[in-house]
Amino acid sequence: MILVMNKKHGVGCSLLAYNLGKLFNLNIYVNKDNYMIDDEHSLLFPEVKKLTPNIKNGIIDIGANIETTYSRKFIKQAKLIVVPFEFGYESIMKTISTLKYIEYATNRKIPTILVLNRLDRQDSDRDFNYTREMRDRFEEAGFRFKRNIFSPEDEGNFYLTYLRNSYEFQSSMDSGEYFLDKFFNDTYIDKTFDNNNFRKKIKQFDYRFFVNIAKNIIHKVNYRNEDIYIQDKDMVVFRNNYEDYIRKHFYNLERNLVDDLYPYNKLEERIRIDSLIDNSYVRNKETKLVKDFAYISYLVDSLYT
Known about the structure:
Blueprint: E1 2-5, H1 13-23, E2 28-30, E3 48-50, E4 59-63, H2 69-77, E5 80-85, H3 89-105, E6 112-119, H4 125-140, E7 158-164, H5 166-173, H6 186-192, H7 195-217, H8 228-248, H9 250-261, H10 273-276, H11 287-304
Helix pairs in contact: 7-9, 7-11
């Protein structure tokens, strides 16, 4: 079970719960007052279900309703917790209060990913200085971050990440869009596949595809560096390694596609990975979002699965 929560309203709990749930093909549960299950939006979010106290698996958008009987029960059962927050005094104080409540609810050291959402207001060094300042604030409150996520000797259970270019990410989600939808060439899909069945089957493929990209690339970029020049360099590294990954694994990816999608191929022709995937998506400004979400997904995959 994965929980997404923060006492502070409006910091991105539903955004992360929905997109991580879709990526990892998990059942997604939200509170009864969440807009995704109201009459106006429910058809856009068929994967999202109303939260009930007897849930045992899936990803749960607790949101700001963390001090309830069922929330405390879920915290005790959780394998991973994701806490989005934003820069600002109230957001930081309520995030620290959220982490303290988790400690109150259970004595287990649950792996917890903090996501500094809607970064990139300035697109400068100042953005990355925020991450250092945030880390210092949380550590002053007694929460220890894992300095080297790849080292088993580092015993910290908190992970600090960030998410850039996520303003547009949120507005796209309001219409039911999932962040990897843009990875795929809709014109080719409509021409080649029985679209409804394909969209269901593609979940299995895009999970393997995206998480494998994250695993192969994330070691090659300096995610923690706070210098804007280094981060900009990392965008180039990410793009180049993304394209290298496609070339290196081209035939394996196509074989997976044939196995997964053959029953839905209307034209019964070769399914081409370079036609299915819209490579322009990872070359534009949204590369920042793709790279950051790749890192968050890598952590979720490593800590949860």
